[in-house]
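Researcher: Go.
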Amino acid sequence: KTEDEITLLNTACMMVDAAYEELYRAMKPGMRENECVGLVNKVLYDLGSEHVEGVNAISGERCSPHPHVYTDRVLRPGDPAYFDLVHSYLGYRTCYYRTFAIGSGSPALNDAYKRCRDYLDAAISLIRPGVTTAEVVKVWPRAQEFGFPNEEACFALQYGHGVGLSVWEKPVFSRMVSLDHPEVVEEGMVFALETFWPATDGWSAARIEEELVVTATGCEVITRFPAEQLIVAGSRYYTSAGPLATTREFQSHLNNAPQFEAQKA
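Model: Structure:
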């Protein structure tokens, strides 16, 4: 990409940064997925987007397996919720996932988020001119490691793709194709890397995506809404003993279970 193209892609990401900020401030139990979609559409258009091509808004038990549509499902306390904001600014696209917990996140969701983040960071750490897509995808898990029979069945869950005038361009990072058909990463490329991990509870999951520019010595991530740890949206709850933990089971009695198990013993 040219310097001007990188500026436009960075600007497009800035708009999504702002949309996630407003979404984070707005989300709470009782808000619907389609309301989340409406909110981010307004923010993006207010900032100058020419076209919001699609918004994935996925919450609760819909998180695993991974769909790519939104519904009128209502957010509930303890829900995972992940989003992908795809829009165009002067022709240049974004592809930018973030995951949130509503009110609190379960230990299973936090574990899934950490796995998702670790796989993404391992890939980002390898990006530099001269590395191949095959070298990058080798750090990602095989399909069978997260519940799928083959790489085709989980295509695009651990994935990377160029971003520019199209939302999916070369280079492609996928265990399904890159191991046999590697491409060389070059300075000036702009692409997205994205990972997914299902939680052990069988229904929640984490999804994270970063866009980056390849520099002479490595890369620069241009998707800036915080994602190093699971972000909790919604009200902070307080009890007579102090703030309620943001890592907790959504079923309240399970958080007191160790106390009663000790009494039984």
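Model: The CA atoms of residues 152 and 176 lie 6 Å apart.
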